[in-house]
Amino acid sequence: MLRDYFADRCDCEEFAIVTLDTKHRPTGLVRVTRGTLDASLVHPREVFRAAIAASASAIILVHNHPSGDTTPSREDRAVTDRLTECGKMLGINVLDHIVIGGANATSIREAA
User: Fold this and answer.
1) Residue 23: DSSP 8-state
2) What is the DSSP letter of 40?
3) CB 66, CB 37: distance < 8 Å
4) Closest CA to 25 of 98, 95, 107
5) Within 10 A of 41 (CB to CB), how many other CB atoms are there?
6) Nearest CA to 18 among 69, 85, 93, 77?
């Protein structure tokens, strides 16, 4: 599902969330921001506005690296930590952050 979504978006970074129900089944995929060639600015307000609107119990963060290198950057890890903390306050669990690059994907939680 994620590879298909990002297949047409190779020219710039995009940040999206997968919304999940109480059993952690996907209920939707929402684009939060579209960035530049190598950066995507994301703010908790936009992420959780989309999650709340979708009545999500939990979310998975997803963004692409147009370079194809799925190695999480320091900024990727910082965004994951910040959004995880914000989610705790709202009662919306951030289960993972997936970086997509071409045919590859990396889980920031598993890479930690």
Assistant:
1) T
2) -
3) yes
4) 95
5) 12
6) 93
Cα 73 from chain centre: 14
Is residue 44 helix, strand or coil?
A: helix
CB 66 within 8 A of CB 11: yes
Burial-class residue 45 by CB neighbours within 10 Å (0-12, 13-18, 19+). exposed
What residue has token string 């109480």? 22
Residue from 18, 81, 79, 89 nearest 54 by CA: 18
* Distance of alpha carbon 28 from alpha carbon 2, whole angstroms: 11
Give pLDDT tens digits for 68-90: 899 999 999 999 999 999 999 99
| pLDDT over 70 at 39, yes or no | no
Query: Is the full-model pTM beyond 0.85?
Result: yes
Tokens 């979310």 — which residue?
59
The predicted model gives 84-99 an average pLDDT of 97
DSSP state string for 56-98? -SEEEEEEE-TTS--PPPHHHHHHHHHHHHHHHHHT-EEEEEE
